[in-house]
């Protein structure tokens, strides 16, 4: 298996701080927990709260300097151990090797020609770190008594990872030693680097992620120090914020969902070796083979010897990539900007609009998305905006008029407007809303491009500015598209063009159409809906994409469920047990 595991805890030297008394550390951690558990700040005060939380965290980090468990050498020193362990455990290792690809970091390099759709990689269950393996580990006694761990699989995985890292004899040591020593998630950004995101649509998710992580750390620090079931944990003598940040980022960038051993439900897992693959555009090519009880991956495309092997992480926005994976993906065809919309309850027509939306399966208040491609809005958002802009007479027509039920099916179909006036209103609204959102940014697109040309820009600052610019470009396109559509429908109105009418047979055509825009709203899931809102994704439509890929029970790409599903949502959203709702308001996810 190569070199022996070399683990050490830096408690002195190497810049270590003077010994901190347990009471002093407990007081600091308690203060952090109280600060992170207080009521949400008022609008516009989120940055101020972030600075206060960060100051407390930095004070704790300073006291804990030199106390983390670390490995000697670099991760590259242990790749040979990883390959030997994988081969010994029954994984496939004859088609690739681990290699350094410069700016992309480490990845898998083909050692032979691999054909598209060829099964080239499989990882047996016994190599995986899962919530189930955590229950059977040294963490098990605490897991069985703590409802937070039971409800939040991602947190369980993070603590499982830390415990096994601190145990030299852990069977997962060959894997853990090859994980990065740090990450490029916003949890590792300097305060000035986070500042670049102020005014963006993503900044709230970044600030929430930091707050949630700090709150989790404080909670589990106190739990580990005081709970009887934690008395034998290897973390009791050394559990630093940097340790937890590392574990959270390791899980956040790598976790996936796989079926449990009996196949009755799903569980979260870290998948050694396979998680070395980098992302590119394409389709999901990874699945779980229940019969052979292993994760399997087929090639996304043809690969020649020495070429890098890529996989597709899923249809994530760049905000999701940056926040949950730590990188910005250029030319992301799935990039989008979240936009929160809702019908005001004080509006005179609220009840009628809410009823029409309910019949279409859309909540009266939700989070949608503006997309980087045409059309900039989905069928769901089109339907929402049409209802949002309806007059009282139009609402009555969709509630009580002839064939009212069938008309609901056409709300998200661009071919059947409610009226020319309604189309003009909704596209005017989109044009204006996107333009207003652009004004909230502190810099222009031109200024962002100029900043990106600076050679001394830090990696994190560059990624933050790239994300900021990408958001603006999406909003600019949405505003321009809204204006073009508005002018188009104004012309239709001025010309007195007849309004397209659907026939009864059109309903069947809509149901069988391939185009997203032609699907009946009530037959589709809302991709943009966040976890915990009124519309829930059918859990059987496909397994959620945690770290890299959506899993099915075969190789063919399953129907993908949107995370936050992400690594949708916002804090990162992960599927958990039904008990999560009772505790999520306290700790939340990363």
Automatic annotation (TrEMBL):
Annotated GO molecular function terms are:
actin binding; protein-L-histidine N-tele-methyltransferase activity; protein-lysine N-methyltransferase activity
Sequence segments annotated as region (Disordered): 554-581
Q: What are the protein's UniProt keywords? A: Actin-binding, Cytoplasm, Methyltransferase, S-adenosyl-L-methionine, Transferase
InterPro entries (alphabetical): Rubisco_LSMT_subst-bd, Rubisco_LSMT_subst-bd_sf, SET_dom, SET_dom_sf, SETD3, SETD3_SET, SETD3_SETD6_MTase
What family is reported? Belongs to the class V-like SAM-binding methyltransferase superfamily. SETD3 actin-histidine methyltransferase family.
Q: What is its EC number?
A: 2.1.1.85
State the compartments where it is located: Cytoplasm
Name the UniProt record assigns to this protein: protein-histidine N-methyltransferase
- Catalytic reaction list: L-histidyl-[protein] + S-adenosyl-L-methionine = N(tele)-methyl-L-histidyl-[protein] + S-adenosyl-L-homocysteine + H(+)
Provide the SET domain boundaries: 94-314
* UniProt GO BP: methylation
Q: State a GO cellular component annotated for this protein.
A: cytoplasm
